[in-house]
Hints:
The chain is 72% helix and 0% strand. With 151 residues, it is mostly helical. It starts with a helix and ends in a 10-residue tail after the last helix.
Amino acid sequence: MKTLKKVSRFNATPCLLVVLFIVCSCASISHFDQYAYTQTTSLKVDALNIIVLAETTPYDSCVEKIQNLGTNLQKAYEYEKNRPKNEISIKLWEKLLNKDGHLLGGYFERWKKEGKVNSVVVSESIESIGEAFDQISGLESNKIKVSSVNL
Length: 151
């Protein structure tokens, strides 16, 4: 009998640790936000549409579009920064917007410097920047959805 009890307790311990980890991890990330999700998916479409222009259009001809997109990206980033328990999303946005990086911020810097961007770089950038936006929106869509109940 003693042996059986020890085995039962031993098997229950990992399960309790997993449950404890899940409960703690749920409390350490913000809840789903429809506005944040919508903004991210909308900005992805806008960004990819502008990125394509770099192959055929000089940077100077697209400055206004790029600035408008930049303003909207900054608004989304500021919104994310002010949500509680949202550090992971903030890090993803910072990586996407980094002007010294290889994603959107760095892409626009390269386009500005070179005037145009070759088709291979455009194709690769569309893929990597699209994936970066997908990571942000995927993270948001997988957050816990809280429903409000009217009492």
